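Deliverable D5.2: sample structural annotation.
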Amino acid sequence: MSRQYLDVPYRSKDAAKALGARFDGTVKRWYVEAGVDLVAFSAWLPAGTAPSGSASRGIALADETAAGVVAVKSGISLSRLLNGVAAAVAQALASSVWKDCEELDAGLG
């Protein structure tokens, strides 16, 4: 099966993965298999590649912001949305430190 390779910056890898992209370790690039609607991956398509499909059919249209966050326009399936949210939360909290809040609860009683 043929692949459509994407130009995904490292900071956006989790968002691309959440949308269904896979990483080819041999060539060190993200890709989607042929036949996949490319509209959701339009932010990462190489120059001159037109996305297939239509946002009016309920397909997600991704726009990458300067911070590497993918903004979704139009309709999207709930599972795809939740995967994207999970990836964004994981990425945002990757360097966070969780604090035990038991000592706060003790003072409220």
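Annotation notes: The first strand starts at residue 3 and ends at 6. The beta strands are 3-6, 22-24, 29-33, 61-64, 70-73.
The annotation will be released with the project's public dataset once the embargo ends.
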